[in-house]
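Hi R.,

Here's the chain you asked about this morning:
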Amino acid sequence: MIGRLGTILKWIILLPVLIVVVLLAVANDHSVTVHLNPFDADDPVLKADLALYQVGFVVFAAGAIIGGLVAWRGQRKHRKRAREQRSETARWQARAETSEREAARSRPEPAAGFLPRPEGG
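And the predicted structure, written out as tokens:
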């Protein structure tokens, strides 16, 4: 229920934002010059004429990639701890299985004639 409500709320918020972004992209299709050489603005090799929405898209994509990398790097200690806990869990599980097998081997098997008498009934 909460997941469905969150999805509906997300679309209620994001759909108008998407419409506004598309309208701004259509309205601002003028060409802008992007200079990639900060020391010589007249350098024709490191200069690009792009539409304004293309510049915005490149900036958004770069921000999303950089943000994803920063978040991934921030989770490094949690991933390391999870790996250590998985290996420790496997070690304890193997130890428990080994001790159970040894206990089963050392237990004498009961003879068929010495079964306990049923109670009740």
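The first helix runs from residue 2 to 27.

Let me know if you need anything else.
M.
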